[in-house]
Write a structure and sequence with these properties.
Helix content: 55-70%
Number of strands: 2
Largest sheet: 2 strands, antiparallel
Low-confidence stretches: none
Strand content: under 5%
Number of helices: 5
Structural class: mainly alpha
Oligomer: single chain
Strand order of the largest sheet: 1-2
């Protein structure tokens, strides 16, 4: 898992987690943009640059440290964060539908059905 995926995963998780409060705390994509620059430069400085070879891939080498954190990675994180924050409104709207089905109607909805509902309406 790379940095954009991890940041979007945390952003989506925290927005969903805090959406159940009376006064929900919404973490916007701007927060991820601001936080990603120091995290990216720290990872570029800390990760080891040792070269590894994977068996079956010939002479190809890879490293855990891809190099300095640059503008392209920062733009990619911004795009990911914009998609992961539900456009600044916290969690996905269809999560409320899945909650209402369980809380008010007393019916169980399967994980696959609720996931399909959320993905198709997002």
């Amino acid at each position: 898992m790379d940095l954009p995926d991890a940041l979007v995963l945390l952003l989506s998780f925290f927005n969903q987690f805090f959406s159940y409060r009376k006064e929900p705390l919404i973490i916007t994509q701007i927060t991820v943009q601001v936080a990603s620059l120091p995290i990216g430069t720290l990872m570029a400085a800390v990760l080891p640059s040792t070269k590894f070879r994977k068996p079956g891939f010939g002479a190809r080498e890879f490293s855990l440290n891809p190099g300095p954190f640059n503008m392209k990675e920062h733009v990619l994180i911004s795009i990911f964060a914009n998609a992961g924050s539900a456009f600044g409104n916290g969690s996905a709207y269809a999560v409320g539908i899945a909650n209402i089905i369980k809380a008010f109607y007393g019916r169980n909805i399967s994980f696959f059905a609720s996931w399909l509902l959320i993905i198709t309406t997002q």
